[in-house]
Specification:
Helix content is 48%, strand content 9%. It is mainly alpha-helical. The strands form two sheets. It has a two-stranded antiparallel ribbon with strand order 1-2. A two-stranded antiparallel sheet has the order 3-4. Helix 4 packs parallel to helix 6 and helix 5 packs antiparallel against helix 6.
Length: 186
């Protein structure tokens, strides 16, 4: 099972989007982006550059963004396009072609000193635009485990990933199926 051929920034931003969606208390039992420090840690973990300062307003904006982009998990383009356009209206965009480590030339849609929430929003919007334009929005979806609502990014070539990486769902599902087969044969 090979990995889908996506540019580094698309893969990175898609994984950031999945992490953002999975930070919800509905998924993990607690809001893992509840404080400015949580947001700074998130941004550092996902390789954001520029000013790494967050405020309570950034935290609130990210919570709104997380709720807004839940629609992307439904694989229906019109609601996602509406969410993208609404986000563009709210953030100040200044497209720039930049190069910094560890990336080669790529686009930043905000300045490095823009609020952290706006820089995260811009990258989320960019990855969703890339997925829609490539016909790959279905690469972003919910975990197939019946007791899980986590998001996942299917980067496999044959679109075979079914379970998230949040709750060990693939292993739990396989163990449950094995036990059911074993018990049925006993």
């Amino acid at each position: 099972m090979g990995v889908m051929d996506l540019s580094y920034d698309v893969r990175t931003n898609l994984l950031a989007l999945v992490d953002l969606l999975n930070s919800s208390p509905d998924v993990s039992g607690e809001d893992s982006l509840a404080s400015p420090q949580d947001l700074v840690d998130f941004a550092a973990r996902h390789g954001f550059s520029g000013d790494m300062h967050a405020t309570p307003l950034d935290v609130a904006a990210i919570g709104t963004l997380r709720e807004r982009f839940e629609v992307a998990l439904d694989d229906e383009i019109p609601p996602v396009a509406d969410a993208i356009n609404q986000t563009f209206e709210e953030i100040r965009t200044f497209p720039q072609l930049v190069r910094h480590e560890p990336w080669d030339w790529h686009i930043h849609f905000t300045r490095g000193n823009a609020p952290l929430s706006e820089r995260i929003a811009a990258d989320i919007v960019l990855v969703l635009i890339d997925l829609i334009r490539a016909g790959d929005l279905s690469r972003l979806r919910r975990c197939a485990a019946s007791d899980c609502t986590a998001a996942l990014a299917d980067l496999t070539r044959n679109r075979s990933k079914r379970y998230c990486d949040v709750r060990n769902c693939a292993n739990r599902t396989n163990v449950a199926a094995y036990r059911a087969r074993r018990d049925a044969g006993a």
